[in-house]
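Quick one, tokens below. Sequence please?
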């Protein structure tokens, strides 16, 4: 066997490099749903898994996330939840009999709910009914413009928050002078003038420079995150601040902006255009609305099904064995 392999290995050694490279199998591209969005102590979460978890949220909770960071905010909370779950499993808490009983009950409840939703209620919540609802309630699926914004703020005492550098403004003139100084530092930062790189890389360079100054100098709770206020929509911020942000091009640092909170420099990191959520993205919300509208019909179907199943099944009840925990 070795004698047979040696000539082949020798032949490979004299092949042109390009031929050897062509012989190397190419890796198939990773599907979008399989891309990893987070890893927690070796446990991975893919984009598809995150989408599924997000789609299971109720309308009110999902709307809340949409107003405060969307899937990124949800992912952060989910990571914290998974950390606690990992800790519980590490301590074998999931093996306790009472916990096992609750897990079994939760599984049973989820199976019942999904069967009612997807099978029993199917004649009520039909594909056509969902399409008709979507077409006649377009305003419910409006998606407002979003922008991701960072800021650096100097707040005259007593409202100023101690930052990482340990300095904070004491009065109006100090706050203005501080912002002017930071503005000067940003203007001389070489990352702000990186003309030799592509637009996206230049934008990221500006964001990095601004975030560094925010972490160093800003006087509010967003400083450790580089002044990041997350994704916001119109109406969520101070009106003066918001007007300045809405009129800023992406990747351009504002001049000094005064609001009721102090003096700011603002950077809009990115924007997402408004529009209408697609039918597919709105399925969960539509189903929830139709289930609520047709609740009486769904309950009638559930009652009919359980009556039929009860009549077809062999059931025996032993009331003498039912304990009364109130005594």
């Amino acid at each position: 066997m070795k004698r047979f392999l040696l000539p082949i290995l020798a032949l490979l050694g004299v092949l042109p490099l390009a031929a050897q490279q062509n012989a190397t199998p190419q890796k198939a591209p990773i599907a979008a749903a399989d891309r990893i969005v987070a890893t927690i102590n070796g446990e991975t979460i893919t984009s598809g898994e995150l989408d599924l978890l997000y789609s299971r949220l109720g309308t009110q909770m999902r709307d809340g996330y949409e107003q405060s960071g969307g899937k990124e905010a949800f992912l952060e909370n989910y990571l914290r939840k998974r950390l606690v779950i990992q800790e519980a499993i590490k301590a074998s808490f999931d093996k306790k009999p009472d916990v096992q009983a609750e897990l079994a009950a939760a599984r049973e409840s989820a199976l019942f709910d999904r069967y009612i939703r997807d099978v029993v209620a199917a004649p009520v919540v039909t594909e056509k009914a969902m399409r008709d609802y979507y077409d006649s309630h377009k305003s419910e699926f409006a998606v407002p413009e979003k922008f991701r914004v960072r800021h650096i703020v100097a707040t005259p005492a007593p409202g100023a928050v101690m930052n990482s550098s340990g300095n904070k403004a004491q009065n109006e003139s100090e706050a203005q002078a501080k912002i002017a100084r930071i503005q000067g530092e940003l203007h001389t930062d070489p990352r702000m003038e990186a003309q030799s790189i592509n637009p996206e890389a230049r934008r990221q360079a500006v964001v990095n420079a601004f975030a560094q100054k925010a972490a160093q100098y800003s006087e509010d709770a967003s400083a450790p995150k580089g002044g990041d206020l997350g994704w916001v929509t119109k109406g969520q911020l101070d009106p003066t601040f918001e007007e300045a942000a809405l009129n800023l091009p992406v990747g351009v640092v504002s001049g000094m902006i005064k609001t009721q909170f102090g003096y700011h420099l603002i950077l809009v990191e990115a924007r997402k255009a408004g529009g209408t959520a697609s039918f597919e993205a709105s399925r969960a919300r539509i189903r929830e609305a139709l289930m609520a509208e047709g609740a009486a019909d769904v309950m009638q179907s559930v009652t009919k099904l359980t009556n039929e199943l009860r009549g077809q099944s062999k059931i025996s009840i032993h009331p003498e064995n039912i304990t009364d925990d109130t005594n």
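Confidence is low (pLDDT under 50) at residues 1-21. The domain at 146-272 is CATH 3.10.50.40 (Chitinase A; domain 3).
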